[in-house]
Amino acid sequence: MIYPALTSVQKTQLAKLEKRLRRNVGQAIAEYNMIEDGDKIMVCLSGGKDSYALLQVLMLLKESAPINFELVAVNLDQKQPGFPEDILPNYLSKLNIEYHIIEENTYAIVQDKIPEGKTTCSLCSRLRRAVLYKAAKNIGATKIALGHHRDDMIETLMLNMFYGGKLKAMPAKLVSDNGEHVVIRPLAFCKEPDLIQYAELKKFPIIPCNLCGSQPNLQRQNIKRMLNDWNEQSPGRIESMFTAMRNIVPSHLCDNNLFDFKSINSHSGVINGGDTIFDQEELTEITNHTDNKTYSSKEIKITEVN
């Protein structure tokens, strides 16, 4: 492991933060059965804070896990101009872990195919996935671990709602596009602020993505700003949204493929609380941020909004 020089206060902060991240990752792994005995996990390392944290936490868990599994770090060098090719090999060589740097000039393909001014994320992502799937097959990986966290999943949900017309986010575990691999997201329960602080304390050698990071007005960035604004106005809102993603009630949505609405009749009985779910009796206090006062739900009159 790499231990940067820290003050005593920072060491305490790091210990608490690392404990929380280990607990969150361990919970996600257990809840979705992400890692099994004998697995060979290919950890996709981009050079960003999230994938660095993912690798570090998995290495810590490996030391104390009751099962045996291998970790292999893989980075895709997409040949972006100015990409510092020495940073990741230097970093990984100090971790005593197997790693592979794969070189594929996907940057040139994206630049050739995407008109100037258009976002490159979609094509770049597809090309990157194809290369990583091939790499996983070549090294015999049984699982592919990605560094997406809780906030990424919520942002994807909002993006699909606003622009795709779907209630769809990033699953914690899925089968890859080509049907050959199991993809896992062990950071599914980790908050981005924790990962930001962890990266700062661990002093990860962050490599910025000049391809996507330089694109203005990305919808994901707009969604991120919106969610941050919401959370500042109403702390706890992001936590509530993620909890909602884990508590789906198909009978109270509108998808006939998930719930048989057509067969409901007067003999069906009350389903999942009927209309009482909208009474929200448990929400006994509402804070009015305009006058900074708190009101009980009985003091709030429900009026029609035009």
Q: Could you explain how this protein is built, in words?
A:
By secondary structure, the chain is α/β, with parallel strands linked by helices. The chain has a domain at 8-215: Rossmann fold. Helices cover 41% and strands 12% of the residues. The longest helix is centred in the N-terminal third of the chain and has 25 residues, at 8-32.
Question: What can be said about the biggest beta sheet?
Answer: 6 strands, mixed
Overall pLDDT metric: 85
Kindly identify the CATH topology of the domain at 8-215. Answer: Rossmann fold
Continuous helix count: 9
**Do you know the CATH architecture of the domain at 8-215?**
3-Layer(aba) Sandwich
Within CATH, the superfamily of the domain at 8-215 carries the name: HUPs
Q: Give the helix level as a range of percent.
A: 40-55%
Could you say which structural class the secondary elements and strand pairing correspond to?
alpha/beta
What is the CATH class name of the domain at 8-215? Answer: Alpha Beta
Assembly classification: single chain
Q: Please mark out the parts with pLDDT under 50 across 5 or more consecutive residues, or reply none.
A: 284-306
**Care to count the β-strands?**
8
Strand content range: 5-15%
Strand arrangement, largest sheet? 3-2-1-4-6-5
CA(first)-CA(last) distance: 59 Å
Give the tags.
alpha/beta, 9 helices, disordered C terminus, 6-stranded mixed beta sheet, 306 residues, globular, single chain, Rossmann fold, two-stranded antiparallel sheet
